[in-house]
Amino acid sequence: MFNPSEPSAARARIAVAGATGRVGSALISKLAAEPIELVALTRRSDAERLPSGVALATVDFDARSTLENALRGANRLFLAHGTSPRQVANEIALIDAAVAVGVSHIVKLSVLGPPSRLHPFDWHMQIEAHLATCDIGFTVLRPSSFVDILARAGAPIANDTWGGAAGDGLVNLIDTRDVADSAFAALLDDAHVTSQRAYHLTGPTAVSMPGIADELSRLLGRTVTYQHRSPAEQREKLLASGLTEFVADLLLGLDRAFYESTLAETTTTVRELTGHAPRPVTDWLGDNISLFRK
């Protein structure tokens, strides 16, 4: 576990790619309280969404020089990218730029799960494989599915139409704040700068969608049910709701992983890295119960 009160000359400058994402925004808020220089890499102007004192560097993934200029002088890089068909090319471009300008350590946000052809699992595998060939220290964080994916179920639960193709499968959902806390510890860890490590991050216990429905029933004081659907039925529902085929297929891939319980693993890594236990799903549901009210 890293103690942020310990002084370190190596903590001069940290670059954050994905600073306004779910994990990145929580991470950069924690880093902003540390005596370090912070630069957020962005493809657009996100200054209004960042803490004061965070420098902004605009990058163009099709122009290698902008990536190198943004990273020049940085000691560490947090690497996260929104899920998209360009994820592999863009993350590899940032890795190569970091190596070229002498970044010491990369903390890459990846995903938990076995080898798979499903997106984005396969994309992260490709990026990890490239990172493993580079002469640079790195920490790969492989979290299970984020608990706030349940926010998508807010309106369906309120309208009594929640369902999917996850069946009774188990998934160990993790709070994004715990992922950010783990990334914070890895970025400020001076004992393993040249090490190449990977960590599996999970919540404290695996849950099922029907189990979450039971907990919501308790919190809301009314019966919540999870309607079991075939993948074809769920895909039709997702497309009818206005989602693109790309997003619908991503969500169906998650349902398949949940159904097969491939993300049900429980680890103690969050506690070992951060010093605190991971937050349970029940905490997130309680904090966000207004999303599910009629």
From TrEMBL:
SUPFAM superfamilies: NAD(P)-binding Rossmann-fold domains (SSF51735). It comes from the Bacteria. Residues 12-230 form the NmrA-like domain. It holds the Pfam family NmrA. PANTHER family: PRESTALK A DIFFERENTIATION PROTEIN A, PTHR43162. This is SDR family oxidoreductase.
